Amino acid sequence: MRSGSHNEGARLTMTLEPGSEGRPSFDAVFDQYHRKVYNVIYRLVGNQDDAEDLTQEAFVNAYRAYDRFRGDSQVYTWLYRIAVNVCKNRFKQEKRASRVRIDSLDEPVPGEDGPIQRDVPDDTMNPYRAVEAGELRSVIHQAILELPPEYRVPIVLRELQELSYAEIAEAMGIPVDTVKTRIFRARGLLRNKIGPYLGR
Q1: Who contacts 53 (Cβ-Cβ below 8 Å, separation ≥6)?
Q2: pTM of this structure
Q3: What is the pLDDT of residue 134?
Q4: pLDDT above 90 coverage of the chain, percent
Q5: Per-residue pLDDT tens for 106-147?
Q6: Are 149 and 87 in contact (CB under 8 A)?
Q7: Any idea what DSSP says for residue 156?
Q8: What is the distance in angstroms between the CA of the first residue and the CA of the last residue of the chain?
Q9: HSE-CB of 75 using CA atoms within 13 angstroms
Q10: 6-93 and 125-200: identical CATH topology
Q11: Is residue 145 a contact partner of residue 170, using CB atoms and an 8 Å limit?
Q12: 109, exposed or middle or buried, with CB in 10 Å at 0-12, 13-18, 19+?
C-alpha cells in the first residue's frame, strides 16, 4: 500500500473499539503514535514505500495483540518493539534476496569466444560529491542505513527518537548493557564512515 492510501488502509484493517482495563482505545494509540512509528521504520529501512508498508504491518500486528497488552511497559516502547521486529523480518528477507542477486550477477554470460564475466557497475554514491553538494544529511542517513541492523536499530532509537537506554532495551528485548555496547560501536562505525568525508 502506498502513500495517500496508507492511513486509510490501516484504519480499514482495524475495527477500533473503546479501551478496556484503563487502556486507551486503539484508535487513540494509532493517532498518537502512527507518525512516530513511521519515522522510526523509515530511518531503519530508508525507503518511503517500504516504511509505509511496514508501518501498516506493525500496527496490524499491534492491533491483533492489543487485548494482551497489560500496561507492563509504556505503549510507545511496546509499539517500537513490534516495529523493530517487522523491520528485522524485512532485513532477513533482504539478506536472503541479496545472496540470490549476488550469485546471479556473478554468473558469467555466454559469449562468442566463451563465457564472459559480468561487469557489475558500482552504484554507490560518491560521498565527497554528496558533501560538496550540501547533502551531508543524506550522507549521514546513508551511513546509518549501512550499519548492521543490530547497531542501526539502537542508534536510531537513541539519537533520533531520544529513547533512554532502558526503553531501547525493552523495545529490542536485550539487556541495557548490550544496548550501551551496541550504541558505542555504532557511533564508532559512523565516525569512521563520515569522518573522512568531512576531512577529519
Answers
A1: 1
A2: 0.66
A3: 53
A4: 45
A5: 444 444 454 444 444 444 445 455 445 456 677 788 889 999
A6: yes
A7: I
A8: 43
A9: 21
A10: no
A11: no
A12: exposed
What pLDDT does 130 receive?
A: 45
How crowded is residue 45: how many other Cβ atoms within 10 Å of its Cβ? 20
Rounded to 5°, angle at Cα 48 from 148 and 79: 70
CA distance 65 to 148: 28
Contacts (Cβ under 8 Å, ≥6 apart) of 73:
170
Q: Spell out a b/e string for 58-90, using b for 16 or more CB atoms within 10 Å of the CB, else e.
A: bbbebbeebeebeeeeebbbbbbbbbbbbbeeb
> What is the dotted CATH code of the domain comprising 125-200?
1.10.10.10
pLDDT at 93: 81
Q: Can you name the CATH fold of 6-93?
A: Rna Polymerase Sigma Factor; Chain: A (1.10.1740)
- The domain segmentation of the chain, as residue ranges, is 6-93, 125-200
Given the C-alpha cell 525493552, which residue does it identify?
Answer: 170
Crossing angle (nearest 10°) for helices 48-65 and 6-13: 20
Q: Give the angle subtended at the CA of 142 by the CAs of 137 and 148, to the nearest 5°.
A: 135
